[in-house]
Amino acid sequence: MTRSAVEKTDPSGTRLGELWSILPEEAGSDDTGRLVVGGVAVAELAERYGTPLHVIDESGLRRQMRRLADGLTARWPNSEVLFASKSLPIVEMYRVAHEEGLAIDVAGGGELQLALAGGVDPQRIYMHGNAKSEAELELALSSGVGTIIVDNEDELDRLDRLLTQPQRLLLRVIPGVEAETHASQATGGENSKFGVPLGELERVVARMQRHPLMEFEGIHLHIGSQILNTAEFAESVDRVSRIGRFPIYNVGGGLGVKYTYAEEAPTVEAYLDAVVAEAKAKLPADAKLMIEPGRSIVARAGVTLYRILSVKRAVKTFVAVDGGMADQLDIALTGQRYEALLADRLGEAWTETVQLVGRQCESGDLLVDGAPMPAARVGDLVVLASTGAYSYSMTNNYNGALRPAIVFVHDGTARLVTRRETYEDLLALHAPSISAA
Ligand SMILES: Cc1ncc(COP(=O)(O)O)c(C=O)c1O
Fold it and tell me: What is the pLDDT of residues 401-412, one digit of tens each?
C-alpha cells in the first residue's frame, strides 16, 4: 500500500486538497491505483460482501479512542471518556470501545441491549434519553447500569417508584450555549428539549439529594454535534462551573470532523486543550471530568461503498448508485456534505462534476451535490468518505431498502461484524409472517 501525496483538483482547475485527509488513517492505494483500507482493496470487499457496504478501519478507530482517552487522562487524571454509541451502535463497536477502556453512553433501551450484548460491564454504562419509559428504566436498573443521566422531573417520579437500591445519577441541564452547527444538531440553547432549565436546578438537585436511594453525583450537558469551534466547548465548561460545585462534570460530546477537502476541523489535542484549560481555571480541582465523543471517534474510520447503476447525462449528469438516503439519512436531515471517489480510479484526473444520487424516490436523495470525478461508468465502485458516524445509526427501510452490512478491516484481513438485512428480515415484522413466528 502506498500513500504518495495526491492533491485533488476539480475539473475547473480549483485545488481541493489532499486526498488522504478525509479517508481512514490506514488508507492508501495499491500499484494499480485502487483504494486500500486496512490493507485490503475495497474492490475485493465489495466483491465479497456486496454493496452498499460500510467498511471500518479498526486500527485507526482504536488509535482515535486512545488519543482521546490518553489525552484527557494526561491533562486531567480524574477523568473518563464515554463513547457516545449513537454514532455507531453495533455490537462490535461496543466490544471494541469497552476493550479500549472507554465507558459507554447509551440512549435508551435498544442501545443498552446492544452494549450488553457487546460484553460491556454494566457499571460502565451511562444511560441517556430525554423520554425514558418506565420499561427502559426498569431494564437499566435490573441490568445494573452504573449511572442514569436524568433529563427531567417526570423521570425522577418514575425512578422514585422503581428504585429499590441506591442508584448513581447525573442531572442533565440546559446550559444556554448556542453552538454554531446545523439547527437539528444544536442541543444546548435555551430552547433545547434536553435537560432541566438552569432556573429549576437548585430545587431538582435538592429533591435528588433528599431521596434515600438517589445518589446524585453531578451535572451533565451536551451542546450539540459537529462543532468546529473549540471556544464553544470552553464556554460550556465555564457555564457548568457557574452552576455549583459537584463531584462530577460531564461536558458531553460534539467535536466536529473534517468531511470535505476544504473543511478544517480541530485536532483532538486542540479540543482537549480548550476543554481542560477552562476546567483547570474554573472547576474544583478534585472533580471528575467526563467527555462523551461519538462522531470524532468513528467518522473518519468509516467509508461506504456503492456500485454505480446508471449514468444519465441530462442537463446535469446524474450518477445513480445502489444505496441512498435510506443509508445516509444525515445528508437530508442536516445537510451533511461528503466527498465521493471512484475506488479503482484514484490516480485519474477529475474531468466532470456530477450529481451523485441514490435510489430512493425523492429528489432530495442526493448523496453529493456536485461531486468531481473521472467520467463515471456503470459498474464503477463509489466510495463515500468519512461515513463512520451516524450513517448506519440512521439507516431505515425507506422504499424497502435493506440495511447494509459492516466489515472491520485490519492488517490485511476483513471480518463481517454486522450482516446485511435480507428480504426475510424485512417480512418477518409483518403479518402473515408474524403469525407463524
Ligand atoms: C447526550 C449526547 N452526548 C454525546 C453525543 C455525541 O456527540 P458527537 O457524536 O457529536 O460527539 C450526543 C450526540 O449528539 C449526545 O446527544
Answer: 999 999 999 999
